[in-house]
Amino acid sequence: MSVTVRVPAKVNVQLAVGAARADGFHDLANVFLAVGLYDEVTVTPADELRVTCEGPDADRVPLDRTNLAAKAAIALAERYGRDADVHLHIAKDIPVAGGMAGGSADGAGALLACDALWGTGASRDELLDICAELGSDVPFSLVGGAALGTGRGEKLTALEVGGTFHWVFAMAERGLSTPAVFREFDRLAEGRNVPEPLASRDLLAALAKGDPDALAATLSNDLQPAALSLFPELADTLAAGRTAGALATLVSGSGPTTAHLARDPASAAEIAEKLRTSGTCKSVRVASGPAAGATLVEGRR
Ligand code: C5P
């Protein structure tokens, strides 16, 4: 038998970044919103651990033990004293190295799928602990919806969202490495006092109300200057989104995917069409949020 889990992408509607900590990570106030672009991870018993991937960016996905899906299977197997003898297949629709937590989605998906396949009986908290060990964004990929992440982003508080937000995502020709973007953030912050990262009350109120205009007025990403510094052409994509009628635009997480907030589905479709023909990005997708977190779609035991 096999088990398939579907996991959403995320956009950070606020990403407040503090100074580098002694361990090299940064304290964050990270407001995650899961959006309806999905990877699917299918796990099947096998002789030994193997990862395969299909999808538009599949050639850019590592298939060895550095893949977060493989790391998740190994971490769960170690905890339950068994072999990670599974074939993990990733049907990838979330952009690779795009700032939308695609790798984290595969980690959370593999964890939930292996857990169901092996019937470990692990509690939600145990799974969340493993997610946090795998990476800062992995716990959010498991829970989905909307949440405030503090610490390095892994300590989650669920947030109320009073409506559906409509987005257009513009994918770039190349990826950006998250560590490189944080390093650039540190370089740009040299000699400056970096304030403690705090969630914006106005932004949380906009989410709770489901008000796109209020959310547009409060979107922010402290990593955006660093992403633009490493990938200056992204400024053209952001400008094209604004010209196309987006309420607001920002770089998603560490980038380079850009997120364009629309008032409604019709406006999202129009912005998407204009961005597609703008010549400032590789491809364009429309998606709305909040979306549910990692969910078993097939092969429930
Ligand atoms: O936690 P994760 O493995 O996803 O982080 C990838 C990299 O991003 C880290 O190695 C670190 O360079 C950077 N990072 C950070 N502060 C965070 C999260 C990530 O500096 N809160």
TrEMBL record:
<keyword id="KW-0067">ATP-binding</keyword>
<keyword id="KW-0418">Kinase</keyword>
<protein>
    <recommendedName>
        <fullName>4-diphosphocytidyl-2-C-methyl-D-erythritol kinase</fullName>
        <ecNumber>2.7.1.148</ecNumber>
    </recommendedName>
</protein>
<dbReference type="Pfam" id="PF08544">
    <property type="entry name" value="GHMP_kinases_C"/>
</dbReference>
<dbReference type="InterPro" id="IPR036554">
    <property type="entry name" value="GHMP_kinase_C_sf"/>
</dbReference>
<feature type="active site">
    <location>
        <position position="10"/>
    </location>
</feature>
<keyword id="KW-0808">Transferase</keyword>
<dbReference type="InterPro" id="IPR006204">
    <property type="entry name" value="GHMP_kinase_N_dom"/>
</dbReference>
<keyword id="KW-0414">Isoprene biosynthesis</keyword>
<dbReference type="InterPro" id="IPR014721">
    <property type="entry name" value="Ribsml_uS5_D2-typ_fold_subgr"/>
</dbReference>
<feature type="domain" description="GHMP kinase N-terminal">
    <location>
        <begin position="67"/>
        <end position="145"/>
    </location>
</feature>
<comment type="function">
    <text>Catalyzes the phosphorylation of the position 2 hydroxy group of 4-diphosphocytidyl-2C-methyl-D-erythritol.</text>
</comment>
<dbReference type="Pfam" id="PF00288">
    <property type="entry name" value="GHMP_kinases_N"/>
</dbReference>
<feature type="binding site">
    <location>
        <begin position="95"/>
        <end position="105"/>
    </location>
    <ligand>
        <name>ATP</name>
    </ligand>
</feature>
<comment type="pathway">
    <text>Isoprenoid biosynthesis; isopentenyl diphosphate biosynthesis via DXP pathway; isopentenyl diphosphate from 1-deoxy-D-xylulose 5-phosphate: step 3/6.</text>
</comment>
<dbReference type="InterPro" id="IPR020568">
    <property type="entry name" value="Ribosomal_Su5_D2-typ_SF"/>
</dbReference>
<dbReference type="GO" id="GO:0050515">
    <property type="term" value="F:4-(cytidine 5'-diphospho)-2-C-methyl-D-erythritol kinase activity"/>
</dbReference>
<comment type="similarity">
    <text>Belongs to the GHMP kinase family. IspE subfamily.</text>
</comment>
<dbReference type="InterPro" id="IPR013750">
    <property type="entry name" value="GHMP_kinase_C_dom"/>
</dbReference>
<keyword id="KW-0547">Nucleotide-binding</keyword>
<feature type="domain" description="GHMP kinase C-terminal">
    <location>
        <begin position="203"/>
        <end position="278"/>
    </location>
</feature>
<dbReference type="InterPro" id="IPR004424">
    <property type="entry name" value="IspE"/>
</dbReference>
<feature type="active site">
    <location>
        <position position="137"/>
    </location>
</feature>
